[in-house]
Amino acid sequence: MSAADDLARSEALSPNDLGAFWMPFTPNRSFKKNPRLIARAKDMYYYTPDGRAVMDGTAGLWCCNAGHAREPIVKAIQRQAADLDFAPTFQFAHPQAFTLATELALMAPEGLEHVFFANSGSEGVDTALKIALAYHNVTGNGSRTRLIGRERGYHGVGFGGISVGGIVTNRKHYGGLLGGVDHLPHTYDREKQAFTIGEPEWGGHLADELERIVALHDASTIAAVIVEPMAGSTGVLPAPKGYLKRLREICDKHGILLIFDEVITAFGRLGYATAAERYGVTPDIMTFAKGVTSGTVPMGGVIVSDRIHDAFMKGPDHAIELFHGYTYTAHPLAVAAGLATLEVYRGEGLFERAREFEAHFAEAAMSLKGLPVVADIRVVGLAAAVDLHPRQGAPGALGYEVMERAFHHHDIMVRVTADTIALSPPLIVKPSEIDALFETLKRLLGEF
Ligand SMILES: Cc1ncc(COP(=O)(O)O)c(C=O)c1O
């Protein structure tokens, strides 16, 4: 390449050029015409490069539960970067990884005692699915290879996660996916559940669909069922009353492992440390991510029962029990962030706070009912979804415009999936901020 070529290339790729970054889950061409840029964050607010404050209505991406740039977490990460930047966890370890694992096991419902760390929700899901399959192998049930997910489920973007997931757009371009996967029906029916606060009365019976799937494939072929206790990404669909208990019973009856994907629901989103705690149903494997570090450093993982963990702890002492792991499993920065984040959650009682403000949040969300564009509202914990009536022939167009206008003209960040708006503010949100968020959204939706 000539010097002139180099110069032309570096000018094309100047720091202000938006071309090189292929953005995830974003209409890139539209974004780059009118970018939504964020330069800084503190507590409940993002700040644009020109200093405009934008209220974070979504805890980033369902992850910054403690709010932004919280000093104890920032300090812990800084200290850790100086003390120990990296240590392998294949065959070696750093002490705090064990401390965080213990704290997470203590936070999880009784019976979930062992933590395997990954770096994201997607990796957590793949880890959970692999452990489920391997568990059946090491316990002499190698024929149990089927995985059962659910329609409208989101389990990240790995091949395992999209296979058990139930979002058509996330699956349709990626070939045959994992074999042997089946899906439960989703639990949403607008006619029967519209404008429900909390867990819908209707839909618990849909758990019995698992019996139909068992009858079709035979229990001896099924390894695990994976569900989100509250499906977040497809629009805040809380489990109907009795649904999770029934799933648990059917799984127990047939020797099938139950996996809760708690990537969104763990760490206070539903007013408890985990959704399992809220619903009084303990899975065999639970995934987590996001809130574990309040979004500051990537981390995810799974928490498993003694029974599953102990099944692997056999054979010669020098032999590796599970051939799985990531270079960055229990990365020191993530571990430090995790320990500091849990301390903030405990010290500020943020899970209890979410429970305390749940009714206020629900009332504020439901104040949007009656607007002509609003088709349904669902709310549970500090999470709400507002379904809009899609534009004729242009699904997703209205939702996208609402999100754009919210950011550029109304100083709030909302999340949209197609024509559903989702709100999940940091758990430090004040009642006055809840009111401001929904009043602003009401004004904005009134423009349509
Ligand atoms: C339930 C659930 N599982 C998995 C994931 C994937 O997490 P990540 O984006 O960190 O890979 C998400 C992300 O939103 C999620 O909501």
TrEMBL record:
Q: Which Gene3D superfamilies match?
A: Aspartate Aminotransferase, domain 1 (3.90.1150.10), Type I PLP-dependent aspartate aminotransferase-like (Major domain) (3.40.640.10)
Which named protein is this? Omega-amino acid--pyruvate aminotransferase
Enzyme class comes to transferase
GO BP, one example?
biotin biosynthetic process
| PANTHER family listed in its UniProt record | ADENOSYLMETHIONINE-8-AMINO-7-OXONONANOATE AMINOTRANSFERASE, BETA-ALANINE--PYRUVATE AMINOTRANSFERASE
Family to which this protein belongs: Belongs to the class-III pyridoxal-phosphate-dependent aminotransferase family.
Cofactor(s) the protein needs: pyridoxal 5'-phosphate
Cite the EC number: 2.6.1.18
MF terms from GO for this chain are: adenosylmethionine-8-amino-7-oxononanoate transaminase activity; beta-alanine:pyruvate transaminase activity; pyridoxal phosphate binding
Q: Which organism is it from?
A: Lutibaculum baratangense AMV1
Instruction: Give the domain of life.
Output: Bacteria
Keyword list, A-Z:
Aminotransferase, Pyridoxal phosphate, Pyruvate, Transferase
